[in-house]
Amino acid sequence: MGIDDRLAADFARAWCDAMNDGDLDGLMALYAEDVEFQSPSVPIRWDIADGWLHGRDALRANFEKGLATPGLHFDLLGYTIGLVSMCYFYRRENGMLGSDQVEFNEEGRACRVIACYGPPQEAAA
Fold first, then answer.
1. Sheet holding 96-104, edge to edge
2. pTM given for the model
3. 113 neighbors 36 (Cβ within 8 angstroms)
4. Is residue 125, in this structure, part of any structural domain at all?
5. Is residue 11 exposed (0-12), middle (13-18) or buried (19+ Cβ within 10 Å)?
6. Which of 15, 27, 40, 62 has minimal CB crowding within 10 Å?
7. Percent with pLDDT over 70 in the chain
8. How many domains does the chain have?
9. What is the CATH number of the domain that holds 104?
10. 80 is in which domain, residue-wise?
11. Nearest 5°: phi and psi at 13?
12. How far apart are CA 40 and CA 46, in angstroms?
């Protein structure tokens, strides 16, 4: 599926809003049933060494744990668009930078996601 500015902007904003609102159902609506998701949090939360979760049920359980983090908050910093994927960038409440590279299926739902985390940084003044 080709990526355009509207899809990228809408997805990034919907993801950030759902995370900040603790809206698990809204968050899961963004993902395909057969989603593949890799994150540095997966080995810690689930003891899965390669960090891959497969399917929306596994991803839902992962996000459910994440949304339980006290004070959880994301600031969307921006996004970039590729030929078949997009990447959005955010800063968490603890200063950690993150990015998610997302590929979409034909229905416009995320079907493959690779999350990357960086060290905490101070917000720019």
1. 52-54, 31-38, 110-120, 96-104, 85-92, 74-81
2. 0.92
3. yes
4. no
5. buried
6. 40
7. 96
8. 1
9. 3.10.450.50
10. 5-120
11. -65, -45
12. 11
